[in-house]
Amino acid sequence: MAEVQITVTRNGPYHVKGPVKLVDHRGNEIPYEGDEIWLCRCGGSQTKPFCDGTHRKIGFQGAIAVPVKAAGESS
User: Fold this and answer.
1) 29: domain CATH number?
2) CB-based contacts of 1-4 (< 8 A; 24+ apart in sequence)
3) pLDDT in tens, 23-69
4) Which one of 13, 25, 31, 43 is most buried, counting C-beta atoms within 10 A?
5) Which domain range does residue 29 map to?
C-alpha cells in the first residue's frame, strides 16, 4: 500500500499526497483526479473542500501550534 502524506502548508491548505478516499459528512465519496489534493483550511474557498487560493486573497494565517498524533498512536 502506498504511503499517504498530509502537509499543513504555511498559511495555506492541507496538501494530501497518496491514495486517500475523501468523503463528506454523510459518508458520500467526493471524487477527485490525480494522486494529490489541496484541502481548504481558511474556510473561504468556493470549491470546498478543495482549496481555490482564497487564503492568499484574504490574508489567512494558520499557525501550526501542536503536533497531532495519529489515531491509535500511543503517547
Assistant:
1) 3.40.5.90
2) none
3) 999 999 999 999 999 999 999 999 999 999 999 999 999 877 556 66
4) 13
5) 1-65
Q: How far is CA 40 from the centre of its chain?
A: 6
- For residues 14 and 11, what is the distance between their CA atoms, to the nearest angstrom? 10
| Inside any domain, residue 73 | no
pTM of model > 0.85: no
By CB neighbour count within 10 A (0-12 exposed, 13-18 middle, 19+ buried), where does 32 fall?
middle
Which residues 6+ apart lie within 8 Å of 25 measured at CB? none
In a domain, 7, yes or no: yes
For 18: left if phi > 0, alpha if psi spans -120 to 50, otherwise beta; the answer is left
Take residue 62 and report the three cell numbers written for it.
494558520
Q: What is the DSSP letter of 29?
A: B
Q: How many independent structural domains does the chain possess? A: 1
